[in-house]
Amino acid sequence: MTWLPVAEFFVTGEPKAQPRVRVTKTGHAYTPGSAKGFKERVHWEARANIDVIEWDEPEQGDCLRVDIDFFLKRPKRLCRKADPDGPVYAPKKPDKDNLEKAVLDALVGANVLWDDAQVVSGTVQKFYHAKDKGPGAMIKISRWKE
Question: What does pTM read for this prediction?
Fold first, then answer.
């Protein structure tokens, strides 16, 4: 009974949260495309890294763990010499649950997950990126093995 690593990869670029569904005056519901670019990068990085380790297609009953560290753009006020060089927690928007939803939706679209309901465990953290790095997301996927 342990978690077996499936993939670990870094997606470059500013993480974007999953936007809320909007409704027009005529009653048409749609999802704004503000996270589309970020979700596409997650999709392609996931496919590239899953193929490297020859993981089979996901099965409906698989229990998965997804750990995600988001690195948001560091504000100028935290770029002084006196500020820490490494990542710093980011207590600002976007919300971590909306960021996580965007990543899980992209993983479902990449056929890495059958459904995001398969994710039974994992941690999600938000940081401002280190001074010598850029924004992005570190994603680690593990499968439960009995």
Answer: 0.85
